């Protein structure tokens, strides 16, 4: 006789309804990084399928013993999604109890991906910036640009100005209006990506992930003492340019190496550190005020499972979602 087991189903609306804040997700991501630095996690390489240059699918799995959970996200992304009224990335997350192996929840992963991506940038930026930053440069003015302002203003309250650029001028103008309506920031639309780098203490590139994207940015664009975080792999940086900055970090070296055959990260420097070790104090991030530092945040499965646990626990407390039989 098989014992009855029930798990929680959470739609996108349910995930949003539980009301986890950006601060909650930043804390979850920071914990995941600390566990990774302690070598107390399991995370195989991302499984990647690209039927075309306009569409990818990926599976991201991991186990986080510190919170007693494992999970897997199955997602897809395409710049064509917007024409269908959908986010760039959509997906589902399956959360399992680490000890019994049984599912705890199946939930929409779109909101989790949005939040943990920006939260990871916030954690990395806080660890790598050596002074009080005032100017943020944003390349790509879509959903992630909005989430990043939310996350970065939460951990870097000294930010006062945003310099933004998008290949679609109307998108940049809309981003300017919406951001200034929500935050006490001076937002300036730039005529080029190069202009968005000018004078920025922190630059975030958040365009589409596609190997044939025009790669424009040069290491010389990044001011001395500035930090850049990429969430679009190296898709905005010219071939070999990342080898010309002073220090490069990533959220997972093995995943970066695993992605190279798909056309990314050509001409990378030979030495790349992991940001989790900096966050946990195991290694140094910035070693000089004038260093130009880039952190490649590819988005790792540990961030997902840590965030999913927070959402699940809050949903159980608030009785949100639908219980289903296995």
What does this structure look like?
This protein has 326 residues and is α/β, with parallel strands linked by helices. 32% of the residues lie in helices and 25% in strands. The strands form two sheets. An eight-stranded parallel beta sheet has the order 9-8-7-10-11-14-12-13. A seven-stranded mixed beta sheet has the order 2-3-4-5-6-1-15. Strand 12 (247-250), helix 7 and strand 13 form a beta-alpha-beta unit. The radius of gyration is 19 Å and the shape is globular. The mean pLDDT is 94.
Query: How far apart lie the N and C ends?
Result: 14 Å
Biggest sheet character? 8 strands, parallel
- Strands side by side in the biggest sheet: 9-8-7-10-11-14-12-13
Query: Which of globular, elongated, flat, extended, rod-shaped describes the shape?
Result: globular
- H/E element sequence: EHHEEEEEHEHEHEHEEEHEHEHE
Report the radius of gyration as a whole number of Å.
19 Å
Helix coverage percent: 25-40%
Low-confidence stretches: none
**Count of DSSP-assigned helices:** 9
Strand content: 15-25%
